[in-house]
Amino acid sequence: MAEIVKDYILDCLKSAFKKAGYDEELASVSYANNPNVADYQCNSCFALAKKYGERPDVCASKIIAEFDGQKKLEVELSKPAFINIKLTDAYLSKIANLVLEDEKNLVKMVEKPLKIVMDYGGANVAKELHIGHLRSPIIGEALYRLNKLLGNGVISDTHLGDWGLQMGLTVAQLEDDGYLEGYFNRGKNKEITLDTLNEEYPKASKRKEVDPKFREKAEAVTYNIQKGKEPYFTIYKDIRELSVKRIKQNYLTLGCHFDLWYGESSAYPYIDRCINIFKEKGLARESEGALVVDVAKEGENIPIERKSESEVQRYKNPMPPLIIKKHNDADVYATTDIATILMRNEQYAPDRILYIVDFRQDLQFERVFRACKKAGISPENQELIHIAYGTINGKDGHAFKTRSGETVKLEDIINMVKAKAEERLKENGIVDDPKLAMQIGIAALKYGDLSNVVYKDYIFDLDKFSSFEGKTGPYIQYTGARISSLLRKGNNDVGKINVELAEERNIVINLIKMYESFNVCYQENSLNSLCLSLYNLASAFSLFYNNVKVLSEKDEAKRRGYLGLSKMVLKALTLGLDVLGIEMPEKM
Fold first, then answer.
1. Cα four-point dihedral sign 159, 164, 166, 171
2. 161-200 burial, b for 16+ CB within 10 Å, e for fewer?
3. How far apart are the first and last CA of the chain?
4. What is the separation of C-alpha 503 from the centre of its chain, rounded to a whole number of angstroms?
5. What are the Cα distances from residue 110, in Å, to 7, 125, 149, 372, 392?
């Protein structure tokens, strides 16, 4: 049975409030402002004083008189009217031993488990993965692991971009450059490699901006692919297979795993049904040859009176309609997004669908979600949530790029962090250990990302991220490796933990906060709280390690208890890193 400390404290407070004649719903608990004096505090007495016409300190005294901490909690009045709460050494010892027994004993599971589909990764087929593809799989994988830890049923889908204009552009360019002759029975095909695709798509993307005829051809090819016309559909499938193989390798290196490898193409069979639903419910209308759905609510998209007929029409609170069919009858991204929601509901009936996509898609998702709710494609009680993340910037504050101004490839980033980890390891006397270097490099990359609030931009600072000191992934790994070494030297002879020292108290208090951070991260869909609490726990252990001579302790019970405390910290740190998708090495 999990021991949820904050919940227990709150229950004790509510009981005391009720016995003292106060509304128990006004009871609250927070971390103490001064950790040297108390562990938690209750600030509710000022609100009670207003409601009941009593002095705040009188309210506090009455509550303290009725408080029963069952030898787990000590309370006292702190002027002017705060109730300070301190966990007893005996209670901290019990908590520490629970974690030593099973590191999940302090995990607060969700009360009502949900079925969740998570959409992240979202790589585009036939395009090189770059730094813009980094945050989605890192954030998504961590949220996936967190939700599973807390008891939700989760299905992850990378939902590849494999059905849009980029496919038509790539195929059109390949055809023009003579790679596809065999498909059209005009000769032999030239070998198509990933390097070929990396050259052809950028060339096609630039060409469409200056060559209208080529763009028309690419749009026609896209249409043919979407309608399953040969040989375009076979060409498309071959390119997709080639790309997905590399994408899987990159995601695997990042420690990201997916239950489903669907793409926009997977939802294609549902598109016509979606269009018909909007038509049958009278939600679709024609606009300049396209089919659109109005999703504006009251107070949005209000026309601003034009001063002249030549002036462009502007709107207050603009919320443009959602295009679900282009003028040439081709599908658009919104159409496949809607069809994907219909597909997911019919296959999995999830309570919640999470999309981890950058903030620039916020308006698009808002309109798609509204359209799905209006049409009943998404049930009323289903949550559709877009977790919008910020961008990765260089030290100059602008988008992170190479010195030549080009976008940095994802593989290059992975190689950069690995090389930096090898430098750090060499300083510690460890050479030629590529697996360990990759573990540390990925930790630097992931922790550097996840330690930021998800919706904020952050600066990519490789030197800072890779340090074995400070708030970094490698520092937490280094702490774990240090504990593993200590346990090996102590023959793993762990005993029952008996908290007595201030350093031990500090460890267990930070341990509790780490477990409480899981639920904070769950509510906020951001992992920064867990990152900070892992650092604080690692720092608390380092203080203990520096001040307490564990292996030379002559009292056998104490020595075994110290080793038990160390192992408990290792188990907690390993669990926390695992949620972040970071491995804990045994040596560094």
1. positive
2. bbbbbbbbbbbbbbbeeebbeebeeeeebeebeeebbeeb
3. 35
4. 32
5. 13, 37, 9, 27, 32
Amino acid at 515: Y
Long-range pairs for 172-175 at CB < 8 Å and ≥24 separation?
172/204, 172/214, 172/217, 172/218, 172/221, 173/200, 173/201, 173/203, 173/204, 173/207, 174/200, 174/235, 175/221
**Domain locations in the chain as residue ranges:** 5-87, 165-253, 410-580
- The total of other beta-carbon atoms located within 10 Å of residue 382's CB is 18
Report which of 87, 57, 62 is spatially closest to residue 75, judged by C-alpha positions. 87
- Is the pTM higher than 0.85? yes
Per DSSP bridges, beta strands 392-393 and 458-459 are: parallel
5-87 and 410-580, same CATH topology: no
Pairing of strands 314-316, 302-304: antiparallel
DSSP class of residue 53 equals T
Contact 527/443 with Cβ under 8 angstroms? no
Interval 420-479: pLDDT, tens = 999 999 988 899 999 999 999 999 999 999 999 999 999 999 899 999 999 999 999 999
The identity of residue 378, as a single letter, is S
Q: How far apart are CA 344 and CA 308, in angstroms?
A: 48
What does the pLDDT read at residue 403?
Answer: 62
Tell me the CATH architecture of domain 5-87: 2-Layer Sandwich (3.30)
Question: Which residue intervals of 20-82 are DSSP H helices?
Answer: 45-52, 56-66
Count Cβ atoms below 10 Å from residue 456 Cβ, excluding itself: 12
Q: For 391-410, b where at least 16 C-beta lie within 10 A, e where not — what string?
A: bbbeeeeeebeeeeeeebbb
C-alpha 265/C-alpha 277 separation (Å) is: 20
Partners of residue 73 on adjacent β-strands = 87
Question: Contact 474/407 with Cβ under 8 angstroms?
Answer: no
Over residues 551-578, the pLDDT tens digits come to 999 999 999 999 999 999 999 999 999 9
The packing angle between helices 502-524 and 5-19, to 10°, is: 90
The pLDDT tens digits for 37-75 are 999 999 999 999 999 999 999 999 999 999 999 899 999
Q: Which amino acid is at 324?
A: I
- What class, spelled out in words, does domain 410-580 have in CATH? mainly alpha
What's the rounded Cα separation, in Å, for the pair 373 and 377?
6
User: Torsion angle, CA of 431/435/441/443, rounded to 10 degrees?
Assistant: -130
Residue pair 348/116 in contact (Cβ under 8 Å)? The answer is: no
17 in Cβ contact with 68 (< 8 Å): no
